[in-house]
């Protein structure tokens, strides 16, 4: 069989002639696939082909095209790579009923079991224990799987240590002066359920983050306040392999700590801490720590305004952090300005200085969370806006979707009406991409699906 790549023909347009496109994986049109064993290339000037010619390939020397005989006509075709995925829009996919409003969701995979989602739920009217639900993805939807006892749950984290799977929850508790617990649950491969494994004393904990360093395992807990004071210690715990529990390893001073985010740059581990309030103002500095020999070493301070969340993501080889700033309060606040209309910022890592530098500011309405995701080669950010725009108070709060567009940076491409979404998560399965938002105002959270062009 002749080598088609050796036939160098300059392209020329063909008027009113349908084109058959051959993907790069050699998936041929039906006419060709039926005659794959007798694939031939011939030079011809015929404008029509007979039924007996179906599947034959020809080089039209006049029109400078390679053609295939299909349905009585010689039709041009070109080789190309498979089409790239590209997002068209986002549609509603599933409503997830929860026992109470939820502030966070965590989506994870257990080997040989599948995809799970756990919600952190809090009913402000209750003063005792409640439940946070665990769901399993089956037949294209989340179904109820297990209820786990929590106390004003704020966030969940799934992690694996020595082939054992764990879920940890940050419980806020019911009052700033009452100590609470961070509960850790271990997956039982026998019962296919999570069982309580360890409780850690915390103070109005808002978030926790798992990370590794040098083969050791750690859990960072963000304590918001103790006895009404927001300047207090947030604690790093190290895993004791002999006892299979976490124990305190280090403390760092925080100011209304709301979020920990771990990431690495060129093999160096980092943690970003979101500080939200120092007792007088929300204009406080949040911290970036390097992880060195199992200890956090402060590397940078970034001014934030009621920071609730850090999101780490990469584009090609570049590393970014996005901060969700939620509330402008303090002596410096302009009384005429809305405290909820705040600039949230994206920072880019400078590898020479080993510091994050401001990359882009985006106006948000009490941002509570950023979530990054990719569709094909495109990178997106979605932000949860908890408040309505001041100029349009009758409009619902919206979550905005931004796409990275090179020199244009992040450009808004979609706007979703959401009822006080507090957290976004994404996952992919079966070739599709899904978004989940936790509804902090009602008992219905939502799964959305990305539709492709």
Task: Give your account of this protein's structure.
- The protein has 453 residues and is mainly beta.
- The chain is 1% helix and 61% strand.
- The chain is built from one helix and 33 strands.
- It has one helix at 30-33, and strands spanning 20-22, 41-43, 57-60, 65-70, 73-79, 87-97, 102-110, 114-121, 130-138, 141-150, 153-161, 164-171, 180-188, 193-202, 205-213, 216-223, 231-240, 245-255, 257-265, 268-275, 283-292, 295-305, 307-315, 318-325, 341-350, 355-365, 367-375, 378-385, 398-404, 410-417, 421-429, 432-439, 444-452.
- The strands form eight sheets. Strands 1-5-4-3-2 form a five-stranded mixed beta sheet, with no helix packed on it.
- β12 and β13 (180-188) form a beta hairpin.
- It is globular, with a radius of gyration of 28 Å.
- The protein starts with 19 loop residues before the first strand and ends with a strand.
Q: Mean of residue pLDDT?
A: 86
What is the count of helical runs?
1
Spatial ordering of strands, largest sheet: 1-5-4-3-2
> N- to C-terminal separation?
37 Å
Largest sheet: 5 strands, mixed
Count of beta strands? 33
Protein structure class? mainly beta
Strand % is over 45%
Query: Could you name the ranges where pLDDT drops below 50 across 5 or more consecutive residues?
Result: 1-45
Shape: globular
Rg on CA atoms, Å: 28 Å
Query: What is the helix fraction of residues, given as a range?
Result: under 10%
């Amino acid at each position: 069989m002749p080598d088609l790549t050796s036939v160098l023909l300059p392209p020329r347009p063909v008027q009113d002639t349908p084109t058959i496109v051959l993907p790069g994986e050699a998936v041929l049109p039906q006419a060709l696939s039926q005659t794959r064993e007798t694939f031939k290339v011939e030079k011809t000037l015929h404008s029509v082909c007979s039924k007996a010619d179906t599947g034959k390939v020809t080089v039209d020397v006049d029109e400078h095209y390679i053609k295939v005989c299909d349905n009585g006509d010689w039709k041009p075709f070109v080789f190309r790579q498979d089409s790239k995925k590209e997002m068209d829009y986002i549609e509603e996919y599933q409503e997830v009923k929860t026992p109470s409003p939820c502030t966070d969701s965590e989506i994870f995979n257990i080997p040989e079991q599948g995809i799970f989602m756990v919600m952190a739920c809090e009913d402000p009217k209750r003063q005792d224990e409640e439940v946070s639900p665990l769901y399993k993805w089956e037949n294209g939807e989340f179904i109820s799987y297990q209820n786990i006892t929590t106390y004003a749950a704020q966030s969940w984290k799934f992690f694996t240590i020595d082939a054992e799977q764990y879920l940890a929850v940050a419980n806020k508790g019911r009052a700033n002066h009452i100590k609470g617990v961070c509960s850790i649950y271990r997956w039982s491969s026998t019962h296919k359920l999570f069982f309580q494994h360890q409780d850690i004393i915390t103070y109005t904990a808002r978030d926790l983050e798992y990370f590794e360093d040098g083969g050791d395992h750690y859990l960072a807990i963000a304590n918001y306040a103790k006895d009404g004071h927001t300047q207090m210690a947030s604690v790093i715990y190290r895993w004791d392999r002999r006892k299979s529990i976490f124990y305190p390893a280090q403390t760092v001073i925080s100011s209304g700590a709301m979020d920990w985010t771990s990431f690495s740059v060129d093999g160096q581990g980092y943690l970003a801490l979101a500080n939200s309030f120092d007792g007088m103002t929300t204009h406080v500095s949040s911290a970036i720590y390097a992880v060195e020999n199992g200890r956090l070493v402060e590397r940078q301070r970034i001014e934030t305004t009621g920071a609730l969340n850090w999101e780490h993501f990469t584009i090609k080889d570049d590393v970014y952090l996005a901060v969700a700033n939620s509330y402008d309060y303090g002596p410096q606040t302009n009384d005429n300005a809305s405290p909820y209309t705040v600039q949230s910022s994206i920072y880019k890592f400078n590898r020479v200085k080993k510091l994050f530098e401001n990359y882009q500011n985006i106006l948000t309405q009490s941002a509570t969370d950023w979530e990054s995701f990719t569709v094909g080669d495109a990178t997106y950010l979605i932000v949860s806006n908890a408040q309505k725009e001041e100029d349009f108070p009758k409009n619902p709060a919206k979550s905005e979707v931004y796409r990275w567009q090179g020199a244009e940076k992040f450009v808004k491409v979609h706007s979703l009406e959401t009822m006080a979404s507090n957290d976004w998560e994404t996952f992919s399965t079966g070739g599709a991409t899904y978004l989940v938002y936790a509804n902090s105002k009602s008992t219905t959270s939502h799964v959305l699906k990305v539709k492709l062009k």
